Amino acid sequence: MSTVRNVPFSELRCGEAQTMKHTVTRRDIDLFAASSGDNNPVHLDEDYASKTRFGRTIMHGMFSGALISRMLGTQFPGPGTIYLSQHLDFCAPVYCGDELTLHMTVESIHPEKPVATLHCDIVNQDGITVTVGTSVVLVPRTEETTTLPPLPEVIISGD
Question: What was the pLDDT predicted at 33?
Answer without folding.
Answer: 96
